[in-house]
UniProtKB/TrEMBL annotation:
Residues 1-17 have a biased composition (Basic and acidic residues). PROSITE patterns: HTH_ARAC_FAMILY_2. Residues 260-359 form the HTH araC/xylS-type domain. InterPro entries: AraC_XylS_family_regulators, Homeodomain-like_sf, HTH_AraC, Tscrpt_reg_AraC-type_HTH. It comes from the Bacteria. This is AraC-like DNA-binding protein. Pfam families: HTH_18. The keyword RNA-binding does not apply. Keywords: DNA-binding, Transcription, Transcription regulation. GO terms for molecular function: DNA-binding transcription factor activity; sequence-specific DNA binding.
């Protein structure tokens, strides 16, 4: 039998197929990059994060350490190691990003010793919680006779409301400064683990998350902050709980700074209608002048109380299980007239109480007064003092 040719001329089926379908070019080589459609990246219109940078690098060597000392004075007093002279020079780099309810810091420095004294605490309005994730180097910090050592990859936790002292080698570290009010409900828990090393799986997850946040700092915007702050807050609470010692379930306030004691009293009596400056002074044992000085940056202690009550009202409105009337929530927050509460709430958060309740999934809005990096009033000290606003 004659075998049909495999050429187009001898294969009627192939001829019909090629007549029906248009000729398709067969590529002998892979497509080039010009043939691949690139994804369209739409830039975010949200503002970038406010940040501040300090460095001693461009200063004369003999001025470098004094500049670093002045920069850190709002928190600690720093000193050179015994075998180092000021004219030897001192390198320090400190960049801080404002997260609204936290300050995120990347710091590099030569070796130094540090102390936050009881004398500083008597006059300082700063009593923030403080977390350090060390990237390199080592540090030894003593609180009430207990010394902890931190090395690379370890997470240390303490309060600026209690005296401490220590020293560190040349180091790189990531720091978080967080206001008392961010963890007011966990204040007793946190005091019992002051100056502790967070350990275990949860601490590792926290360290990994902070590393991811640090990596993405150049691309983060203000819109990203509420979720990031809430995530970090929850991870810290979960990471601290396993570190609680049974003999510290009910810690006292001995040794803590004046601001720490005032904060503790206010947050435990926040909804007391008789919470006044006079009552705070009597209960804590300080003068009206001292109380005014501590809360000067907050616009006074009564303004601070009002803001904390509004914050508590916001959290109540966001709770799906809470069915209280807005009028009742307003009265708990110290407002007898619902209209006055709505006006104050809207000015603080940029949204009305009724809208918060209707949209429980909406992200927490930050107060409208966000720091502007180019402002002459902006400094690391200013950000620390006003972090609780």
């Amino acid at each position: 039998m004659h075998k049909q040719s495999d050429t187009p001329e001898g294969n009627p089926d192939r001829l019909r197929a090629e007549a029906t379908w248009p000729q398709v070019e067969r590529r002998r080589f892979p497509r080039t990059g010009q043939d691949v459609l690139e994804p369209v990246i739409i830039p975010s219109t949200a503002p970038p994060l406010p940040s501040l940078h300090f460095s001693t690098q461009d200063l004369p060597p003999e001025e470098q350490f004094e500049a670093w000392r002045a920069y850190m004075r709002p928190i600690i007093d720093v000193r050179l190691p015994d075998n180092v002279l000021p004219e030897d020079g001192f390198f320090a780099s400190h960049t801080v990003w404002h997260f609204g309810k936290m300050l995120f810091v990347r710091q590099q420095s030569d070796a130094y010793s540090y102390a936050r004294t009881a004398a500083q605490l008597r006059y300082s309005p700063i009593d923030h919680w403080y977390l350090g994730l060390r990237r390199s180097g080592q540090a030894w910090t003593e609180v009430d006779g207990k010394v902890i050592k931190t090395g690379s990859g370890r997470v240390a936790f303490r309060t600026l409301g209690h005296p401490y002292r220590g020293r560190c080698t040349s180091s790189e570290i990531v720091l978080l400064y967080m206001p008392y009010s961010l963890f007011s409900g966990e204040a007793g828990l946190f005091k019992s683990v002051n100056n502790s090393i967070l350990s275990g799986t949860l601490a590792t997850l926290l360290a990994n998350f902070l590393a991811q946040v640090e990596t993405h700092l150049p691309s983060l915007t203000l819109d990203d902050l509420p979720g990031i702050v809430q995530t970090i807050r929850n991870m810290i609470v979960n990471g601290v709980e396993p570190c609680v010692r049974p003999d510290h379930d009910h810690p006292g306030q001995i040794g803590f700074g004046t601001m720490e004691r005032v904060h503790h009293y206010i947050h435990h009596n926040l909804h007391d209608p008789q919470l006044t400056a006079e009552k705070i002074c009597r209960s804590v044992g300080i003068s009206r002048t001292r109380l005014y000085q501590l809360f000067e940056s907050h616009g006074g202690v009564l303004n601070y109380i009002r803001k904390q009550r509004l914050q508590a009202a916001y959290e109540t409105l966001q709770d799906p299980a809470n069915q209280d009337r807005i009028l009742d929530i307003a009265q708990t927050a110290g407002f007898d007239v619902a209209a006055n509460f709505t006006r104050a709430f809207t000015n603080e958060f940029g949204v009305s109480p009724s809208k918060v309740r209707k949209n429980l999934s909406a992200p927490h809005p930050e107060p409208t007064d966000f720091p502007v990096p180019n402002s002459k009033q902006v400094s690391f000290e200013n950000w620390l003092r006003n972090l609780d606003l």
